[in-house]
Write the structure tokens for this entry.
Amino acid sequence: MQLSIHYYVLSLSDQLSILYEAFRDKLISIQNSNFPFESFIHADHSDNQAFRNSQLKEFFRQTDQHFIHYYDQDPLYLVVVGEKNNLSIFETLITHRDALIGHIEGNYIITSPHDLGKIVWPVIKEAISGSNNNALRELTKAAEASNVVSGIDAVGQSAETETGPMLYVEEDYHVKGSLRKVDQTTIVRSKHVELWDVIDDVVDIIIEKVLEMGGTVIFMKNDSLKNHERIALVPSS
């Protein structure tokens, strides 16, 4: 499965399971007959830890079955958040274990989607970027060798054809619009599209394309790529 800025977040507690669909740090709560999923655990057995764990196990098994419904339609990576005991139980039960890319300890059931997105996104970002402490130095070397494409329009064109490139993009860089392919890739900007949908953000489309082409994406601090118009691509050769 390909790494992506589009992923799932599953928030677990003893009483409730909430599933989110995420794009970068934007989370959208999935609300239908499957989620949010309420627990059937009885409070009067709270002192019996063995019995409580048994109930939790059944609750999380059913939660996993509900998650499968979405994963089978759109297989994406998953980040699970919850208290340590709940994570331990759930991670022994999850059917699509390969989908689990990370977890975060803590009870975030009442955390807003906005705040939870800020907490979870670094897990995905690190998985995509990997460890690259010398990213800016490497970009500078590439620029000195005239081996960098800069700016959203030029990078958008190059991303369509380059195999295995290195993409550098500022953390909060977004451009409303889409990519339209005529004779070459064309950036189409618009003030009337919503960033809730990944296809309405040109930067996200480019990120996904680079990952699809076997490239690497490095997320940089804001204002660190001023000389490159906030986004830059280094071809693999």
